[in-house]
Design goal:
It is a single chain. The protein has helices at about 10-15, 50-55, 60-75, 85-95, 110-125, 145-150, 150-160, 185-205, 230-240, 290-300, 315-350, 390-400, 425-440; strands at about 30-35, 35-40, 45, 105-110, 130-135, 165-170, 210-215, 245, 270-275, 285-290, 355-360, 365-370, 400-405, 405, 410-415. The chain has about 450 residues and is of the alpha/beta class. The protein has 2 domains: about 10-60 and about 330-440, Alpha-Beta Complex (Aspartate Aminotransferase, domain 1), CATH 3.90.1150; about 60-325, 3-Layer(aba) Sandwich (Aspartate Aminotransferase, domain 2). The chain has a 7-stranded mixed sheet with strand order 4-10-9-8-7-5-6, sandwiched between helices. The chain has a 4-stranded mixed sheet with strand order 1-2-3-13. Helix 4 (about 85-95) runs parallel beside helix 11. The chain is globular, with a radius of gyration of 21 Å. About 50% of the residues are buried.
Length: about 450
C-alpha cells in the first residue's frame, strides 16, 4: 500500500498524460492488488484492461517486487553496451519459453522501440527497404513504429507534419466487417492470403524485408485469424524470402493462453517483438527475439545503434521473476478460465442488439458495437464529431467499478484482465459491463 499518495491537484497541474484528451478527466490511481486498483478517493475498480494490456501478473506481486529490490541492492544500472547477469538470465529464459525458431535477444525499452529495432534488423539482414503491415493494426506511436501502424488516427497524428516511408499496408482477415467476400472461415483465410500475395507481388518481393503482424490483433480489435491463414502467411514468407515478424507486445506472456500468441497458431516466426507483459509492466522493458542465422548476421556485421535503458538490469530482474510467476499457474489459469470468459461475453451479444460481435483469444477480447438497423457504427471517431456512445459505456463501466478500454477505432471495447482473474471476478466485471450497456443504450 502507498503511505503517501501524491496530491492530485499538483499532479494534474504539472503533468500532461499520454493520449491526452482535454475534455476528459482521468482517474488518479494510487494503489493496487491482484486484479484491483484504488483511486485517490478510495474507490476500488476491477482492472479489466490491465492498465494498458500489460499488468499480466496482477498488481502487487511480491515475487516481482522483491526481485527488483534485490537487483537494486546489487547493481542499479549497467550500460546497455555491456553484459550483466540479469540480462543474460532473462535472455536464456526467453529463449526457453519462446518459439523454437528463435534463439537470441536484443533488448529495448518500449514496444514501439522494439518494433523499430526489429524493422532495422530485418532491413539490414534482407537488404530490402519495405515492411508490410496490416490495415487497422497498432505497432507504436514513434515515427518508425507509427509508419507501420495501420490505425489511421495514430498515423495521421504522426504524419501531420512529416511523412514516414518504407511501410506498405495489406488487409487483415477480420471476422467482423471483413472487406473480403467470404462465407466461411476457410474462404476468408484463402481470400486474405491471396490478397497478401497480390500485395507482395505488386510491391516486388525483393523490396520487402519483412511482414510485421500481431498474431491476434491487440487494441485494434482482438481479431483472430481464421484457421489456415497463418500457415499461408508462413508459406508466402518462405516462397518470397521475406521475414515473418510477430508483434507480441500485447499478445505475449500468457495473454492469449500460451507464452506467445503466435504459438497458439502453430507457426514459427523469424523475428518476434515483446514488451509490456515481459515484466508485468513493473519496469519498462522490451526487446526482439530472432533466428540464430539473423543473430549471427548482426554479430558479424556489428550493430552501431542502441538505447541507454535497453535491457535495464532492474527490468531484466523483474522479467525473470515475472516469467517464473507466469509458469507457476498464471498461464494455466487463462486456459482454465477462458471458456467462462467467452461464455460471459457471449451473453452480452445475445442480450444486447447493439453488441454486434464478441471475439478474441485467452484474456484478450473485444466487444464491437453497431446500429442493429444498419450494421454501421453508431459513431466512427475517424470521421464523426460529437459524443461517442462506446466511450460512454467505458465511463459507465468505470462508474460501476470496472475498467475497460476503448479500442482503435473506438467502435469497440477491449477487455484484457490480469492473468490471475478468477471466474467470480469475470462474472462481476461482465455484469457491470452489462449494466453499463443498458445505461447508455
Amino acid at each position: 500500500m502507498l503511505d503517501n499518495p501524491t496530491e492530485t491537484d499538483t499532479e494534474t497541474a504539472s503533468h500532461i498524460p499520454h493520449w491526452y484528451d482535454p475534455s476528459s478527466t482521468g482517474l488518479t490511481i494510487t494503489d493496487g492488488q491482484g486484479t484491483r486498483v484504488v483511486d485517490d478517493e478510495g474507490e476500488e475498480y476491477l482492472d479489466f484492461v490491465s492498465q494498458l494490456y500489460c499488468v499480466n501478473a496482477g498488481h502487487g506481486n511480491r515475487a516481482i517486487v522483491d526481485a527488483m529490490k534485490e537487483q537494486l541492492e546489487r547493481i542499479q544500472y549497467v550500460s546497455s553496451a555491456k553484459q550483466t547477469p540479469a540480462r543474460t538470465e532473462l535472455s536464456e529464459r526467453l529463449a526457453a519459453v519462446g518459439p523454437n525458431s528463435l534463439s537470441d535477444v536484443m533488448f529495448s525499452v518500449s514496444g514501439s522501440e522494439a518494433n523499430e529495432l526489429a524493422m532495422t534488423v530485418a532491413r539490414k539482414y534482407a537488404d530490402a527497404p519495405k515492411i508490410l503491415s496490416r490495415w487497422r493494426s497498432y505497432h507504436g506511436s514513434t515515427y518508425g513504429a507509427g509508419s507501420v501502424t495501420g490505425d489511421p488516427e495514430t498515423r495521421s497524428s504522426l504524419e501531420s507534419h512529416a511523412s514516414a516511408t518504407g511501410a506498405v499496408k495489406f488487409l487483415p482477415p477480420m471476422s467482423y466487417g471483413s472487406p473480403f467476400n467470404a462465407e466461411t472461415p476457410a474462404e476468408l483465410a484463402d481470400a486474405a492470403a491471396d490478397h497478401l500475395e497480390f500485395v507482395i507481388r505488386n510491391e516486388g518481393p525483393e523490396t520487402i524485408a519483412g511482414i510485421l503482424t500481431e498474431p491476434i490483433a491487440g487494441s485494434s480489435g482482438a481479431y483472430t485469424a481464421p484457421p489456415g491463414y497463418f500457415e499461408r502467411v508462413r508459406e508466402l514468407c518462405d516462397r518470397y524470402d521475406i521475414l515473418l515478424i510477430a508483434d507480441e507486445v500485447i499478445t505475449g506472456f500468457g495473454r492469449c493462453g500460451d507464452w506467445f500468441g503466435i504459438q497458439t497458431e502453430g507457426v514459427q516466426p523469424d523475428v518476434l517483438t515483446f514488451a509490456k507483459g515481459v515484466t508485468s509492466a513493473y519496469a519498462p522493458l522490451a526487446g526482439v527475439m530472432m533466428r540464430p542465422d539473423i543473430a549471427a548476421h548482426v554479430r558479424s556485421d556489428g550493430f552501431d545503434l542502441g538505447q541507454t535503458f535497453g535491457g535495464h538490469p532492474v527490468g531484466c530482474a523483474a522479467g525473470v521473476a515475472a516469467i517464473a510467476e507466469y509458469d507457476d499457474g498464471l498461464i494455466e489459469n487463462v486456459r482454465a478460465t477462458e471458456d467462462a470468459f467467452v461464455d460471459h461475453l457471449s451473453m452480452l451479444e445475445r442480450d444486447h442488439d447493439v453488441v454486434a460481435d464478441v471475439r478474441g483469444r485467452g484474456f484478450l477480447h473485444a466487444v464491437e458495437f453497431a446500429d442493429p438497423d444498419t450494421g454501421e457504427p453508431f459513431h466512427d471517431p475517424r470521421v464523426d464529431d460529437g459524443p461517442n456512445p462506446v466511450v460512454d459505456v467505458v465511463d459507465a463501466a468505470s462508474d460501476r467499478g470496472v475498467l475497460v478500454g476503448a479500442g482503435r477505432p473506438a467502435t469497440q471495447l477491449i477487455l484484457s484482465p490480469p492473468l490471475c482473474a478468477t471466474t467470480d471476478e469475470i462474472d462481476t466485471a461482465v455484469q457491470s459491463l452489462d449494466a453499463a450497456i443498458d445505461a447508455v443504450f
